[in-house]
């Protein structure tokens, strides 16, 4: 599982976040200078963080991971700057702010994991999964839900955008308060991402774009119901003791499906849609 998780995390570091940062630029406004500069520089700290994943735990791995963590913390600082600039707490903006902040959780967790230390009571195996989770269930999910909300006006879009921040917060709280809170977070996240899937298939996929864009959107819309059902079944099993998939199985199915089928296909499709608007 460690090799698979490392490969998934590398995808998040080197592809999903830098492509997503371009999509986070405020519609109708000039790009934020600091965020644009960070996006251009991102490959350097991301590459260092990726190397850290493969080194033995110790000082060198921690130092490289810290470079990546610093970049994620700088990214998180753009959330209050964006809020001051937009003065908006619309659902799509809340999702965008969430996307800016969540990689920092992954970055800090990576430093602790590479040092072999526990963080807030969680050991390295859980922290490694946390790094992956907050690149995809955090950054990518919030990013795409916000984009869907902007593209599809209505209650469903607003619910999708708000479900990721709320669900992520509940899951994070559940780490400290118990499995039932984590289950509630999984329910909210699943409902929101199923809504993203429906709106992507029904409204966004049919609006145009190239055949490749439509194919990427179709794949992301079809993958989400399956991967989120797996997440829900795991959370339900943890909370109730019912049989549920192992973490190894979840990494190979839910994790890989979300990384490739949802996150990668989604950001590539949205990038193309942004470059060639209908």
Automatic annotation (TrEMBL):
Membrane spanning residue stretches: 6-25, 61-81, 93-112, 132-152, 159-177, 183-201, 213-235, 247-270
Keywords attached to this entry: Membrane, Transmembrane, Transmembrane helix
Pfam families: YndJ
Signal sequence segment: none
Keyword field contains Heme: no
Protein name: YndJ family transporter
Organism: Streptomyces liangshanensis
Gene that this sequence comes from: yndJ
């Amino acid at each position: 599982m460690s090799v698979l998780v490392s490969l998934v995390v590398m995808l998040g570091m080197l592809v999903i976040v830098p492509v997503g940062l371009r999509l986070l630029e405020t519609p109708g406004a000039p790009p934020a200078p600091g965020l644009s500069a960070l996006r251009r520089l991102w490959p350097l700290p991301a590459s260092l963080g990726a190397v850290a994943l493969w080194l033995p735990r110790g000082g060198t791995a921690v130092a490289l991971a810290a470079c990546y963590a610093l970049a994620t913390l700088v990214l998180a600082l753009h959330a209050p700057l964006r809020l001051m600039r937009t003065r908006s707490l619309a659902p799509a903006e809340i999702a965008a702010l969430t996307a800016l902040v969540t990689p920092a959780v992954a970055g800090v967790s990576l430093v602790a994991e590479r040092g072999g230390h526990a963080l807030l009571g969680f050991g390295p195996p859980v922290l490694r999964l946390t790094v992956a989770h907050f690149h995809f269930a955090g950054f990518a999910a919030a990013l795409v839900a916000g984009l869907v909300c902007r593209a599809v006006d209505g209650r469903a879009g607003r619910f999708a955008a708000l479900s990721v921040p709320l669900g992520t917060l509940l899951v994070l709280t559940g780490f400290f308060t118990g499995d039932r809170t984590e289950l509630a977070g999984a329910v909210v996240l699943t409902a929101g991402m199923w809504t993203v899937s429906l709106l992507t298939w029904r409204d966004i996929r049919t609006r145009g774009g190239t055949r490749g864009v439509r194919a990427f959107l179709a794949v992301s819309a079809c993958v989400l119901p399956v991967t989120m059902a797996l997440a829900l079944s795991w959370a339900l099993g943890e909370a109730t003791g019912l049989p549920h998939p192992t973490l190894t199985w979840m990494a190979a199915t839910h994790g890989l499906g979300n990384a490739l089928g949802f996150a990668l296909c989604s950001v590539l499709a949205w990038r193309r849609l942004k470059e060639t608007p209908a």
